[in-house]
Every structure is written in C-alpha cells, then in structure tokens.
Amino acid sequence: MQLSHEETQFERKTFPITIICDHIYFQQNIGSIFRISEAFGVEAIFFLGKDIPLTPRKINKTSRSTHLRVPYTVVETELEIKEYLLANKYEIIALEIAHNSEALQKVSIERNKKIALLIGSEISGVSESLLEIAHQVVHIDMFGANSSMNVAQAASICLYEITNQLLQLK
What we know:
Number of strands: 7
Strand order of the largest sheet: 3-2-1-6-4-7-5
Helix content: 25-40%
Strand content: 15-25%
Order of helices and strands: EHEHEHEEEHEH
Shape: globular
CATH topology: Alpha/beta knot
CATH architecture: 3-Layer(aba) Sandwich
Structural class: alpha/beta
Radius of gyration: 16 Å
Number of domains: 1
Distance between the termini: 32 Å
C-alpha cells in the first residue's frame, strides 16, 4: 500500500549544500530545482542573473510549495557570487561536461566542508568564469546519442550522489 507524505519514515536532514543556478530562467526548471533541493535537504539556493522569473504562481506548479521552505537569494553578478563562495571557503563543484570533468561517481566529498554545487543555464551551461573557480568539475556518464539532459534532472542525480557520500561520512 502506498504511503501518504505524513506516513513516510524519512528522517529530515539539512546538508551543507548550496546550489548556485547560473542564469537558469525556465520557470519549470526553477520550480523543479526548489523541489529537489527541499527533498535532498539543501541549505540554500542562489540564482545568478538579472530578472530571474521567480513568480510564485508559476513556480508553485512544479515546486509544490517548496519554494516557501528553501531559502534563496538572487545575485546579479558573477563577481559577487565568486567572492561569496571563495570568502566562505566552499568546496565548489561544477556539474558540466568539460575538458577536465570527471565522472560524478569520482566526486570527492570531505567531512564538515560546505559544498557549492554549480549548475548551468539551459542554453549554455556553467560559464567559463565559474568553471575556473571550481575545485571539481563533474559530469554524468550518459550512454545514448544525446550528450546533455535537463538541468533539474541532472542536479537531482548529482545531489543524490553528494548526499549519499555525506551520509557515509557520518
């Protein structure tokens, strides 16, 4: 028999993970990112860019009200987000297919380290400028003819791997 949300036995946790959304503008993706962030116990989300469409009515369709439970901030410039991440000593992990990226399962997570997960725009991915400050660049191995997937789906897979490793460190 299927359980209701109230009947599940999942332990509520918050992990030291912040998601940085590099110029993500599609409202369905924004809503989905809120939803997966809440599901995986993400501390906060930063939206990088100008005029991010955070209209609650449209986002609520995919977020299912999780946008009310996950703290978020809009930052307009890359310089501002870079300074914040570096000053606060985040382990910066970029999710991107790049010349130096490694398979996601090789990501290295340290105990008691704050993690910033950089995810990129639906059109151009993570910017070169942000890739330059990443400590690790990871990609998801794919086996079809396509070399990309939806940003929210990719973030889900990545968060599963990172939170799984964090749970094993405890």
